[in-house]
Specification:
This protein has two domains: about 140 residues, no CATH class; about 35 residues, no CATH class. The longest helix has 22 residues. The protein contains six helices and four strands; from the N terminus they run αααααββββα. It is mainly α. It starts with about 30 loop residues before the first helix and ends in a 10-residue tail after the last helix. Helix content is about 40%, strand content about 5%. A two-stranded antiparallel ribbon has the order 1-2.
Length: about 210
């Protein structure tokens, strides 16, 4: 059972109260498990990263196509074709997190071996090994969890052709409009600083549309 709502700390990802056996962590077990599953979905010969290669230009292979040397978009908001590029796509995002985690742990920087698919698999493996530590101590675990979930959704959208979830405007009691989706894990109002969990933010009233 969770502790009393007035004293129990909340998961930094979903903002629900932590259970007694989770109090040494900043993220609850279900959120940590969901992040782990999202990482797993990216790797392997049947994973999302490998499946994306089929959407590249003819002649591209699973092991990493010839790509441009552009470095103008190191971490793009939309992966698209860049998902398989050595700079700015899935692999770069995963490797950037590994470097950050190693720096926090005072570990030496890792080396990347093999083609892009192999690097993706290596990065996912390393992140999964360090995931329990990150869920407990890394100051940006919330951002990591959200970004991995976003990468997974973007890869799935590229494969299935689905459109991004529609954003719905809801109103914070302070009057600020927040735009959320049905899978929004939570949101913080930028005006008043109120933090909403998943159920709370979806329970906010719809914002009135501006007059045309």
């Amino acid at each position: 059972m969770t502790l009393d709502d007035a004293t129990a700390p909340n998961c930094t990802v979903c903002h629900r109260g932590l259970y007694a056996d989770e109090l040494t962590h900043q993220a609850c077990r279900p959120c940590t498990d969901r992040t782990d599953l999202a990482l797993c979905a990216l790797a392997g010969p049947e994973g999302l990263y490998a499946r994306l290669s089929g959407f590249l230009a003819p002649g591209s292979g699973n092991g990493g196509p010839t790509v441009s040397g552009s470095r103008t978009a190191p971490i793009p908001a939309r992966l698209g074709v860049l998902s398989l590029q050595a700079r700015g796509g899935v692999v770069t995002i995963l490797q950037t997190w590994i470097i950050d985690w190693h720096e926090h742990l005072a570990y030496r920087h890792p080396r990347w071996d093999g083609n892009l698919q192999q690097q993706c698999d290596q990065a996912v493996h390393r992140l999964r090994v360090l995931l329990p530590w990150a869920a407990e101590q890394h100051p940006a675990f919330t951002e990591f969890s959200h970004e991995i979930a976003q990468i997974k959704r973007q890869c799935e959208a590229q494969i299935t052709g689905e459109r991004a979830p529609r954003r719905v405007p809801v109103a914070c009691p302070c009057g600020t409009v927040l735009k959320v989706t049905l899978d929004t894990p939570g949101a913080r109002c930028p005006a008043c600083g109120t933090q909403y969990g998943h159920a709370e933010v979806l329970g906010l009233p719809l914002a009135e549309r501006s007059a045309a």
